[in-house]
Protein 1
Amino acid sequence: MSEQENKHKQRQQKLKESVDARIEAAQEEKGILLVLTGNGKGKSTSGFGTVARAVGHGKRAAVVQFIKGTWECGERNLLEKAGVDFYVMGTGFTWETQDKEKDIAAAAEAWESAEKLLADDTIDCVMLDELTYMVSYHYLDVDRVIQALNNRPTMQHVIITGRACHRKLIDLADTVSEVKPIKHAFEAGIKAQVGFDY
Ligand code: ATP
Ligand code: MG
């Protein structure tokens, strides 16, 4: 073995020891609060990917969508068949309905579904898709959201998606990822396409 190969081997060995030690030290198991935020594309798809992962292991998952798009959601078509319950906010988004009172009522109703799921220990994973907007528009009180998250079953995982997540939710979360836009096809005039964007 050359000196260079030997050095590489030693470095890898050291790295392995340090990774093994950290894996060994991480012993706790608990329900994770995951926040997927930022302005780039990939928050909801990442959340649905995690839901699919749970279902793939025979776990129970449910999704509450706080914005009803005008498009049908491909993940819903698939995951409902796999036993995932979906609760979709009962009205369109503000710039379509332009009726704030109606939107607030719809947000409150969707949040009630979320609270039920967050109190149900038979649900292993709850995804609150686009929840962040309900908080930033003051449609939902952040402290009420935090209370439900704090009181949820110990082993229940929760995924929150959406841009501009409230600081208090970020502080509470165990894992936070920010999706950063580098470029997006839409800016080049390419429209959102079925089976890829929704
Ligand atoms: P996705 O559902 O594809 O994971 P997302 O949840 O990260 O996207 P949202 O802000 O919820 O993003 O937007 C949903 C829709 O808007 C998707 O069709 C997505 O392609 C599009 N989109 C997301 N980010 C951008 C962006 N930076 N510019 C333009 N369109 C975007
Ligand atoms: Mg999204």
Protein 2
Amino acid sequence: MRIRYELVTSIICLILIASCAKKRITFKSDADHVQQQLAKLAPVSLSHDLSYLPAEEIQVVHHLVKAAKYLDTIFLQQVYEANPALLKELKKSSNTDEGTYLDFFKTMFGPWDRLDENKPFINTLPKPDGANFYPADMTKDEFEQWLTDHPEDREAFESNFTMIRRGGDRLVAIPYSEFFKDQLEPAARHLRQAADLTSDKRLKTFLLSRAEGLLSNDYYQSDMDWMDLAGDIEVVFGPYEVYEDNLFGYKAAYESFICVVDHEESEKLETIVKYLNDMEGALPIPDGYKNFERGASSPIKVVNEIYTGGDAKPGVQTSAFNLPNDERVREAKGSKKVMLKNVMQAKFEKCWIPIVNVVLAEKDLQRVSFDAYFNHVLMHEVSHTLGPGQITINGRETTVNKELKELYSTIEECKADVLGMYTAQWLIDKGIFLKDLEKTLYASNLGGMFRSIRFGIGSAHGGGVAIQLNYYMDKGAVRVDKDGRFSANDRRMKRVIRDLSRELLLIQAKGDYAAAQKFIEKYKVIKPEIQTALDKLTDVPVDIRPSFPIENELD
Ligand code: ZN
């Protein structure tokens, strides 16, 4: 699962139109429009000082980067069959605006604008729902009918790791390992070379089993090995997310995140995790509702991104991910949540600061910091493991999720945000977080809310933030001045955060659907003064467009 914290792109249903033939390029959008869209993504150079790594480990990273480049080629094909030809034509196009179109094509991994509901900016064809995972002219019905007629094909057809193609009048499933052999073989070679060089035993085990997985099409063992990584280098490499397949959500796209572990943050997390039970005990609800019986929770790691490949590259950049997706591995070893700190910092500087400059009152502008923002996100993730999960209603064993149904994710995201603040303050009071953090915690929390609701309150996260902002405004903890600028009253915020935590936790503890509905109806709204603030943000970049200096260091 991937977390972008913002901008949930709604994919509209498009009619599938067949198109594989090589074609001349027509520019659907004018160059100015493409330039404007490109400007929504602020360019940023993403790197991290690797000088503390031994020379051979830097070589390991270089091999991983080289391997990841092959995933770019694969993903380009997975998105659209004509992509390689389009890219070639764009590169030699004599159009004076060629640079702009080429940049945007590379950013979007195809001729569709991922920032604007996949509208085409080159040619006019809508994006196929099934990307290039299925024959362009295949309908959903045809696929399903085939499986009804050929039940023995089901496993291969629904596999995350096969391409569906036509073979005469039949539909056939071709394993990725075969279809993308030309890229996977050299990629696997680089993983093996990296494995030879590294002195990190667990990394070596993972790289060797993943190289094997790329060629055998079986990723189970290497996903298991990935869970055991514990050294400096953290690498994601393979087919994972199925978001690109909007037809069935079966087919995984190849992606890579090459990262190094942030030791300072990771140590901090280890400390925090030791206090999980104490934090549960400190929740502002009666003890009977507290949940001390949770199993081992998933580990959280903080890393810095050095390079990405394939599906990790286009459009809005990932701030954190939770992998693997294989339920068998999750059952056996849990999953790993990885937060990309330097990506978050870049987003903070390029997209977050320009927002608070517009929406916050002068005195609060002096009280924002990346540290406060980052620690809140960190505690948001930790807070998902706090509070009621398994509950009993009138003797019936159930879960909060089952009882709150479609309202669950909004309430849960809201809870994680609010408890994130509550627990951050708790850690400050205990002396585990620096006292200094308190100065910027509340104003930063307020400023960040505008980034989250900027893209609407339809998503669980945006909706959860709208609830907080309105609740805080109603209770006088957040004020709007005559210029329409917002400010936080820290003392009141502390009290109101406690109140809101209690309300949300009790809704969850009681599995009270009706109360959740009433709460959401009342608070999940955009008040006029909030809308006025949001209207001022049109020129602020929506995300970042990273470049990776490590590319220039490769031999
Ligand atoms: Zn969350």
Protein 3
Amino acid sequence: MDHTTPQNVDPAELAKFSELAHRWWDTESEFRPLHQINPLRLGWIQQQVPLAGRRVLDVGCGGGILADAMARQGAQVLGIDLATKSLKVAQLHALEAETPNVQYREVSAEALAAEQPGQFDVVTCMEMLEHVPDPASIVRACATLVKPDGWVFFSTLNRNPKSFLFAIVGAEYVLNLLPKGTHEYAKFIKPSELAGYCRQAGLDVQASKGMEYNPLTRRYWLSNDTSVNYALATRKAAA
Ligand code: SAH
């Protein structure tokens, strides 16, 4: 475990996730949306880069929903987060489910970047940037952690009236998909802003994808509409 004091973290955000940590693997809990979108995002990542045999880092892994699934595709996965309870849950799940080749560690992206630069073929950082004080710093750390020619994937929430209505009013107040206060509008990130952070960090945007939700069927699907939830696939220049 890492005992340096990370700066780029909001303790209230970690507390929110820690409080719910025992429910990470309950597919009907607050984490249902993440369980539902998991096969979609995993499929999209693998369209860009097949994961089998790759060294993958998952930044802000939480209970390990994506990290575990990537390991099951044959990747060698390290999941990092700063919420201790979530990491314990992730580790316990890996033990119980006998997931091969997945490890978890409490360390910030920035600290790991100083320790293991250029060590990962693929870095994923999903639904995390909107919870940190300085997302550009996380993007820079991810760029440092990935090998030249490697891939970095981000997903977050767009910032516009529609995303406010769907991701906060709809998801937290009308449909009760997420606990109230899960997301803060001011921390949402426009795709142009995220692309800017990427470019400044030496990551070229290769593809983007949106995610849509139908509350009647309770289903998610990938689309080209990036107005609410979206992901970017980026790549570091070859050495
Ligand atoms: N990436 C996972 C979990 C998303 S929830 C998934 O998509 O399934 C957001 C996660 O970000 C939580 O686990 C929270 O603990 C973590 N987090 C918040 N701030 C963080 C920080 N500064 N460093 C690392 N993880 C952080």
Protein 4
Amino acid sequence: MIREAVVVAHPNVALSKYWGKRDGAGNVPAVPSLSVTLSGLTTRTRLRWDAGLADHRFVLGGAVQARGQAPRVFALLDEVRASLPGGTGGAAFADVETRNDFPTASGLASSASGFAALALAATRAAGLEWDVTRIADLARRGSASAARSLFGGFVELDGTAVHPVAPADHLPLVVLVAVTTEAAKATGSTDGMRITMERSPYARAWLETAPHLHEELRAALLARDFDGVGRLAEASAMAMHACALGAGLVYWSGATIEALGTVRTLRGLGVGAYATIDAGPHVKVLVRPGDAAAARASLERTPGVLRVLEARPGEGARAVASEPPRRVEGQATP
Ligand code: PMV
């Protein structure tokens, strides 16, 4: 059996953050989150089930990754393989090639787009007629934020439940990504969350505060209140990082602080610019489309900022016509 699918998916940025998991199996977030799926940054994954292989073959950005290097990827593939028509589908294994046109594993949410693309490609190529909720569940177990990238626009993840809250055109918004490193982050989000919950004196405060910030942000989004969304998104990111700092986890670099300074300077000039930061040193800046050019120029002049990517609310993961993965240097294009 050889069946192939090519899927594209985009990362998402959480406006209200998820940080911390529920006890037990299943990779279930401890707090609700609300994200926006980003066009302009793209993961492209080609997957085929091939009876001629002795194990899955997983190639990320041109480099072969062994089972031990990508255990969650292999676990997802094993799970889908067990569901292949005819049990293990004539002993087929997956041949996967995936590429990101943005830095991998440095807090730019490549795991979100990566696991969303992988879950959709693996099930599509297998001919499984799973609905998007079931595919999102599979993706969530690889990386919880990946469940959100199955959907476009503004998306809520609450426990195991994931659903779109508003379409991509609900709130005119540009996300400027100030890239501050091309390197992989030192502490992945799973370890970072575990360390934070074990060691931070502020863990309880975060777990209590995050759902309130989330509810307020959701209301601001539904009211199309750009400044409310921005203010609450920045508050959520700051609270998450304050909690992580309490456990000794510093995801920021000097460039992160510089970029935060630029965002504050912009606000002082009357530009509605708001920062959010994930498990890495990059700063994502929310602005209205009309302010994007000026804000981008300011970020590009900021010490330590290597380049600035521009993203807008975009589509969920989807299958596309089969063609070889393509790397687009520099500027991110879908
Ligand atoms: O789903 P993960 O393991 O990539 O963790 C996501 C963690 C944050 O990006 C910091 C927050 C979020 O809700 O996306």
